[in-house]
């Protein structure tokens, strides 16, 4: 298969490409940063911004499948740069879709987040939700096949500095004590990077066309358990300290499901009669 991965230098993308490579697929990768990708062989690497239409034209043409993993993926970055969320996560996705449709791509596969269906996540959640809605509507209008993957708390070696579990481990190593910013009530459905990429590749099967798939761990795990395991592995005997500070945009046990706000209706006591309204319109355009 000819597969394009947009955002292949990132944590998920790099690990996904390694697995796709083992299956002898023909892989093209687009990313602004390519330092990780240089470690891999048998790749066509294009360095560039996915917002650049000329770059996208170059990489999407003649592909079978397109994985879109790029964009703003950190809650804090999204909170600090809300306009960039629209630019990269919404408009950028729309540009890719348009070219996927033009070149008759077999399937567009989008990396979303469980935040997309929650009340938390701030502007990051908004960007993912808006992109999902756009993908579904666009693909329906143009008969383009898609798959949306909502990832949970992915962890593993060489995760980004913003990764929650990496933060815990690095703090424990550097300070020789386990200090957690949040509450001991926090829970997550952790999914190891190798499991996440295995599931991602399975989505290439035909029965996942036009489906939304949630990729998380099977069980909720308390952050306290993670901290205890970390302390034990690093032989830290000091008591675990919780700062109990609320991190804006993050959930405690699981994301609260998004409540659709339908709003309320407003009517005038005396509205314009339909016939009169049409008559006025016709007279204006005569």
Describe the structure.
The chain is of the alpha/beta class and about 290 residues long. It has a domain at about 1-155 and about 190-215: 3-Layer(aba) Sandwich (Rossmann fold). It is about 40% helix and about 20% strand. It is built from 9 helices and 13 strands. The protein has helices at about 10-20, 55-60, 75-80, 80-100, 120-140, 165-175, 195-200, 225-235, 275-285; strands at about 1-5, 25-30, 45, 65-70, 105-115, 145-150, 155, 180, 185-190, 190, 210-215, 220, 240. The chain has a 7-stranded parallel β-sheet, sandwiched between helices. Strands 7-10 form a two-stranded parallel ribbon. A two-stranded parallel sheet has the order 8-13. Strand 1, helix 1 (about 10-20) and strand 2 (about 25-30) form a beta-alpha-beta unit. Helix 1 packs across helix 7 and helix 4 (about 80-100) runs parallel beside helix 5 (about 120-140). The relative contact order is 0.12. The mean pLDDT is about 90.
Output the keywords:
286 residues; alpha/beta; Rossmann fold; 9 helices; 40% helix
Topology:
Elements: E1 2-6, H1 11-22, E2 26-31, E3 43-47, H2 53-60, E4 65-68, H3 75-80, H4 82-102, E5 107-113, H5 122-142, E6 146-151, E7 153-155, H6 164-175, E8 179-180, E9 187-188, E10 190-192, H7 193-202, E11 211-215, E12 221-222, H8 223-233, E13 241-242, H9 274-285
Parallel strand pairs: 1-2, 1-4, 2-3, 4-5, 5-6, 6-11, 7-10, 8-13
Antiparallel strand pairs: 9-12
Helix pairs in contact: 1-7, 2-4, 4-5, 6-8
Summarize the structure.
The chain is an alpha/beta fold.
């Amino acid at each position: 298969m000819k597969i394009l991965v947009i955002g292949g230098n990132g944590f998920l993308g790099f690990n996904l490409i390694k697995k796709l490579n083992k299956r002898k697929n023909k892989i093209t990768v687009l990313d602004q940063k390519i330092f990780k990708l240089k470690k891999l062989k048998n790749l066509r690497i294009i360095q560039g911004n996915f917002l650049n239409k000329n770059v996208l034209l170059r990489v999407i043409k003649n592909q079978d499948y397109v994985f879109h993993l790029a964009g703003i993926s950190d809650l804090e970055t999204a909170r600090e740069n809300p306009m960039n969320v629209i630019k990269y996560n919404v408009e950028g996705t729309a540009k890719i879709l348009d070219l996927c449709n033009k070149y008759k791509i077999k399937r567009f596969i989008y990396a979303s987040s469980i935040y997309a269906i929650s009340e938390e996540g701030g502007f990051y959640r908004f960007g993912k939700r808006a992109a999902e809605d756009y993908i579904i509507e666009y693909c329906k209008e143009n008969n383009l096949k898609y798959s949306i993957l909502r990832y949970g708390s992915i962890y593993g070696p060489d995760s980004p500095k913003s990764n929650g579990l990496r933060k815990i481990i690095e703090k424990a190593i550097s300070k020789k004590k386990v200090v957690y910013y949040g509450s001991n009530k926090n829970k997550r459905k952790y999914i190891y990077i190798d499991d996440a990429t295995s599931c991602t590749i399975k989505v290439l099967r035909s029965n996942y066309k036009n489906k939304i798939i949630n990729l998380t761990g099977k069980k909720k795990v308390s952050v306290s358990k993670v901290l205890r395991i970390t302390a034990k592995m690093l032989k830290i005997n000091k008591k675990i300290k919780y700062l109990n500070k609320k991190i804006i945009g993050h959930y405690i046990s699981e994301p609260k499901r998004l409540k659709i706000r339908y709003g309320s209706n407003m009517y005038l006591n005396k509205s314009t009669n339909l016939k009169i309204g049409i008559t006025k319109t016709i007279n204006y355009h005569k």
